[in-house]
Amino acid sequence: MLLLKAVYRVVVNNFLALAAAAVAAVLLRRPDELAARLRAVSSPLHAATAAVLAAGVARLVRARRARGVYLVEYGCFRPRPCYRAPFATCLEHAHLMPYLVDEESVAFAIRLLERSGLGDETCVPDAYHYMPPDRSLRASRDESELVIFSAVDDVFARSALTPADIDVLIVNCSIFTPTPVFADMVVNRYKLRAEVQNVNLSGMGCSAGLVSVGLAKNLLQVSPPGTNVLIVSTEILSSQYYVGTERAMLLPNCLFRMGAAAMILSNSPDHARFRLGRVVRTVTAARDSDYRCVFQEEDEQGNTGIRLSKDLATTAGHALKSNIAAFGPLVLPASEQLLVAISFLKRKLKQLSGHAGKVRLYRPDFRTAFEHFCIHAGGRGVIDEVQHGLGLSDDDVEASRMTLHRFGNTSSSSVLYELAYLEAKGRMKRGDRVWMISFGAGFDCNSVAWECVKPAPDADGPGSTASTATPSSSPKSPKTSKNDR
């Protein structure tokens, strides 16, 4: 059965090449007749016409072909051990805030943590270690400078580019947006050129990182050769700590952890590590339930927080189905698309014939199109839903689960932590294809395909044993006392 399936895929995926070979074989069986026909139609006028047409077609193809976009390098913020928030610490801190969180809410949060898939190594910002948490603007700025500058320092240290080489800057952070915005903060810190184009995205949740990739792709495909885009993805937690008792609004306190990632994209293949493939974004905000699935609001006591719907995993599954309907035909081999078309045709024919029952559509095997999967580490339920929906193995989702366990939900930067995990484990090979999937408020689902051009030269990344190495711009350790810590 496996041999038959392999033969089927080879034949269908290479049908045009096999057909061309068959035609060539037939023609070469009678070379004298072929040569006679060519001499009969050959003349200087015919040759000149053919040359002009060939040149025109080649130029038209080059003009219509989209300019390639490449990932030059990426870097991730790696928190020091002093920022860790093990479960025991979370429990102790919760009991020190009885006027903010009641015992029932504490028990609920601990049960959630135990089932979340997060480990004791996940980290929270300095502000979360204060009793009560420091939700001031200054605390949020300190966290922003720590995670963003560390990630940008890392990406520049890994690449041959410098801040002077950056032409476009895109920074995304969903909830916290100060004035001046983060994009201006990065321009000021790294003294980017005065003509640099900068964009600051907010409110898009965990999908903003891949939304930024789509925006960068559109810009690079119409920009002069050699244009470089710096993307920074983060989520700032300090000012967003929820101090009420609404269970649906306590979820972010338990799941989200500090993190940031930076990447440099270019339309030049020089020094490229990955080539960008298809980018597909699906927005389901027209449905009221999806629109309110991740919603910032106040509870009955006036405490502001993010309410996560209990149907979040189901909503993500529906959004993923819509996204796959658009993304699948662009990336799946012909053998898988043919099986989907046949199953769809069988269902239609059975419906037209009036037979009872429902024909189940064929679920395509995306492992024929990708070797690696980076599923947004939004929580164990989200990863489970995607794994089940795509029919993936535990090995396929290992990077997502381990990123959730080690770093928690770092929002829009999580997919790059997962890519770093794969490279740190030495699993990325030249030519390997990667599918990144993210979900965000709205509700959004984003898919981005990459092809590896050059694997990482070393394993020094968030997934390595040196993952807690101190970045070059790390500030001092958290303060040990404030308001009776």
Automatic annotation (TrEMBL):
Taxonomic placement: Eukaryota, Viridiplantae, Streptophyta, Embryophyta, Tracheophyta
Keyword field contains Transmembrane: yes
Similarity comment: family membership: Belongs to the thiolase-like superfamily. Chalcone/stilbene synthases family.
Region of interest (Disordered), residue spans: 456-485
Biological processes per GO annotation: fatty acid biosynthetic process
Residue ranges occupied by any FAE domain in the UniProt entry: 62-349
Domain Beta-ketoacyl-[acyl-carrier-protein] synthase III C-terminal as annotated: residue spans: 371-451
Keywords: Acyltransferase, Membrane, Transferase, Transmembrane, Transmembrane helix
Protein name, entry field: 3-ketoacyl-CoA synthase
